[in-house]
């Protein structure tokens, strides 16, 4: 093709660390983000007393989708991977090793911004291998109860997301995200925080979840509104965060995709169902070599 210039795969330039609380475990967690070789993808390395366990960021490794996306191999799991995966995907990182000695990624401030900042601080390094993308070639739809996700072909990734909650602080929110490159991700999506309802806190904690949840790492919605003193980062932060979650779960394809997605009342379970359907139906997509596009530097 005249004028076509293939994009290169990317990793980070050096090792960086992130530390924080595990949202569901409540324990202090430290991870190391490390450069990786071309064509290896994003992989989690669980270091244990009995040996190292590699877990790929692929849909076949999903072990749970309750309030977060968990990956597993045998008895070893990694919980709450979606925000880190969203940061890597949004920054166009193809290859990355995530080393951890616990079973959960730290929640940080509840968004992907701290991960994006750490990855950008490590520097983005081009690699001597062409970058591929999953291009949707035929429409399809998946449903789960009242929620659904549909997709049609597009020359880029577009996400039109709708959330609906029976609460005056949220109600129905609609957000459109057009993936024009890393700068768009950093400016419009990375900082959207996870959220929850005060009415659900005791029930979830009794179930062993959100043990580390606080106003420092989540937007908490009380009976009359948001309890966080600083308020919201955007008026529609709730639907932006759900879009962030979707972007992170889409990374379980093993690379970025191109298509126009419309989602309604979708969560991690439906996201995984969408990716699993796409993976199992190669007639609705094809792999193409990506062309060069906008980049962002530290």
Structural class: alpha+beta
Total count of strands: 19
Largest sheet: 7 strands, mixed
Give the termini distance in whole angstroms: 32 Å
Helix content: 10-25%
Which superfamily, in CATH terms, is the homologous superfamily? lpxc deacetylase, domain 2
Oligomer state equals single chain
CATH structural class: Alpha Beta
The rough form would be described as globular
Radius of gyration of CA atoms, rounded to a whole number:
18 Å
Main traits of this protein?
seven-stranded mixed sheet; 298 residues; 6 helices; lpxc deacetylase, domain 1; alpha+beta; five-stranded mixed sheet
Please give a quick description of this structure.
This protein has 298 residues and is an alpha+beta fold.
């Amino acid at each position: 093709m005249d004028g076509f210039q293939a994009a290169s795969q990317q990793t980070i330039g050096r090792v960086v660390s992130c530390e924080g609380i595990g949202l569901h475990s409540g324990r202090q967690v430290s991870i190391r983000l490390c450069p990786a070789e071309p064509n290896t993808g994003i992989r989690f390395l669980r270091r244990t007393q009995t040996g190292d366990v590699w877990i790929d960021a692929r849909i076949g490794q999903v072990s749970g989708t309750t309030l977060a996306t968990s990956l597993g191999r045998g008895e070893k799991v990694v919980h709450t991977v979606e925000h880190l995966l969203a940061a890597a995907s949004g920054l166009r990182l193809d290859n990355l090793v995530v080393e951890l000695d616990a079973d959960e990624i730290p929640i940080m401030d509840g968004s992907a911004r701290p991960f994006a900042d750490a990855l950008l601080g490590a520097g983005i390094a081009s690699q001597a291998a062409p970058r591929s993308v999953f291009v949707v070639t035929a429409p399809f739809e998946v449903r789960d109860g009242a929620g659904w996700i549909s997709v049609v072909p597009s020359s880029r990734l577009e996400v039109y997301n709708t959330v609906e909650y029976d609460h005056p602080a949220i109600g129905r929110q609609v957000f459109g995200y057009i993936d024009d490159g890393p700068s768009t991700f950093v400016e419009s999506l990375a900082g959207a925080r996870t959220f929850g309802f005060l009415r659900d806190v005791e029930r979830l904690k009794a179930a062993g979840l959100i043990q580390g949840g606080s106003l420092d790492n989540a937007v908490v919605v009380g009976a009359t509104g948001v309890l966080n003193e600083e308020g919201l980062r955007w008026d529609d932060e709730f639907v932006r965060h759900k879009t962030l979650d979707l972007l992170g779960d889409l990374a379980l394809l093993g690379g970025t995709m191109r298509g126009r997605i419309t989602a309604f009342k979708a969560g991690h379970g439906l996201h995984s169902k969408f990716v699993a359907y796409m993976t199992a139906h190669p007639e609705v997509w094809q792999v193409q070599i990506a062309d060069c596009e906008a980049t962002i530097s530290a």
